[in-house]
Amino acid sequence: xxxxxxxxxxxxxxxxxxxxxxxxxxxxxxxxxxxxxxxxxxxxxxxxxxxxxxxxxxxxxxxxxxxxxxxxxxxxxxxxxxxxxxxxxxxxxxxxxxxxxxxxxxxxxxxxxxxxxxxxxxxxxxxxxxxxxxxxxxxxxxxxxxxxxxxxxxxxxxxxxxxxxxxxxxxxxxxxxxxxxxxxxxxxxxxxxxxxxxx
Length: 199
What we know:
mainly alpha, Arp2/3 complex 21 kDa subunit ARPC3, two-stranded antiparallel ribbon, 9 helices, 2 strands, 3% strand, globular
């Protein structure tokens, strides 16, 4: 990664933690369960910067959620490591999907981003399930598959659905894509529609 890509990665990490803080304190649903829209930053990083940028940004994005849902929540020390890794997986997968679908180079890329965002969450979802179903009961004596399926999964699916529509709006916005594209020598998402409209 060059200097611009590094600065973008750090910027997405900060953005993700700010989004988490806002959503956590504004949407505290129950003790230890709150809204978390920090994945917006990991998805932006993955879709625009590719798998590596998405993964590293996701690790940074997960710092504050890891603290709040880890040592200060039900996840203890396991959450401190698990949440950043989970968010890193979403950023990584978003980058792989962005590359595979050539997002930004198709006329209807913004519509493809909705299912792409939902797909990008699947590895994190499976990882989180494994943490709740196997790791937390083994190491902490808490958690369990039931807790994940009843409390965590519905909330997460709701968040990711909202995030998918937000990502579609951002990627469909040429001004936003132009701004993000300045951080990369070769961004994954390039606003091609302007060129085609001018021809």
